[in-house]
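Exam revision sheet. Question 4 asks you to relate a sequence to its structure. Input first:
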Amino acid sequence: MQNYIQSFQRIIDELNKLPGIGPKSAERLASHLLKMNEEDFSELIDSMAQGRKKIKMCKICFNLTEYDICDICKDESRDKSTICVVEDTKDLIAIERTGIYHGFYHVLHGVLKISDNVESKDLRIEELINRIKSFPMKELIIATNLTYEGELTAMFIVRELQDMKIKITRIASGLPVGSDIEYADQLTLKNAFKGREIIEKEEEVER
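Answer key, structure tokens:
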């Protein structure tokens, strides 16, 4: 059986390590890279190298930025009384494109995932709690994806904020269970924000 030459197979293997890239997709990408002209290939490599050097996390919300503080956190016109918690920057961008939300964000960079040993200490949950403690908010909007892991993360955050006086809401209406925010259309996301529901804390339920 004919196999790929070692150098080509190595490219496939490395591309296959990327999330969402299976063996067949890795083969197609590797083939495309080899067919690129030298100028385009150099531009691609340079953009990744420069991005790796320049891109960092905002010191406040952990959004991606080229500076210490991102443009959203610098924006004095935004509603300082709300924070929207999202899994990743791509979800933040999806929400921003709707134009319906004008508060601040907090990017977790993941969700709790037992199968992959992702724990709360691996996320930015402690930093979120410290933000709320240092600058009291009126509302925390939890906009993690409506997946098992997203719901688990939302429940964990609510539990951690049990003793804090803040209204906690969860986006719901308009987004089907199991869906990812980044793939939702703008109308669906707008409905999800308009129809968000208050999450009752345990002590409130007991009363």
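Marking note for examiners. Residues 6-54 form a domain with the Helicase, Ruva Protein; domain 3 fold (CATH 1.10.8.420).
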